[in-house]
Amino acid sequence: MAKEPVELGTVQETLLIPLYGRALDARARRPILADAEARRMVERIDYDFAKFRGPSLGGSVLRSAIFDGWVRRFLAEHPDGTVVELGAGLNTRSRRLDNGRARWFDLDLPDTAELRLRFLPDSERTETVAASVLDTDWFERVAATGGPYFFVSEAVLLYLEQDQVRGVVDALGRRFPGAALSFDTGGGAMMRNQDRNPVFRAVDARMTWTCDDPKSLEGWGLRLRESRTFATPQPDVARAWPWRHRYGMPLLARLAPPVVNTYRMNLFTLEAAR
Fold this sequence. Notes:
By secondary structure, the protein is α/β, with parallel strands linked by helices. The protein is 38% helix and 17% strand. The strands form 2 sheets. The chain has a 7-stranded mixed beta sheet with strand order 5-4-3-6-7-9-8.
């Protein structure tokens, strides 16, 4: 079978990093996500994935597991709810966690949305939306489901400027007050060391937005409910991790705090913009 070519923008290319991480995890003896779809996509895409190396590949799997934990809990409480992936890339969360009842919207820029549809076509309850997280014209398509809503943005907002991130939060808060919003943040130590990260040496994009304290974002009209690191995942999520992560990450957090503790996965509630 001929492989599929990809043509992506500078930032969009970074979506291939977590895709490869999940594919490697799927090949492991004891996978965390067991994402067979990711493995299939890597085998079909014409791209030099082998240039991606280093701990960030495994880290992308742990990150997805933490976000999955929150989405899974949301769906347990609201089985008919709506999950919106902001910057979906080739994430398979809408396949991995689907309960047969929820509505899913996978939003990304047009070039990425086109690529996504080649491998992950829409279904009756899953819709790909070709738009930017900075746009708002897709809001009504989501609002028409009636909610409740869970917005998740994994490794996306970090590539925006701070005023753009705040604009996204403000717009969502005005239209979907009370909804859940989860996204990751990176502190200064992490941002200053991007060029030392092997995966970033393979791409041109660099993360921009720095946030040392997620609690400080409550001034934007957010209420912080949980903030996790690779060393402090949800207990039910940690139980599914191999021991090298379950015990190794807390040890690394004590020995080299900036490596682990400056990158955080956060769960917020959207409130009215202030």
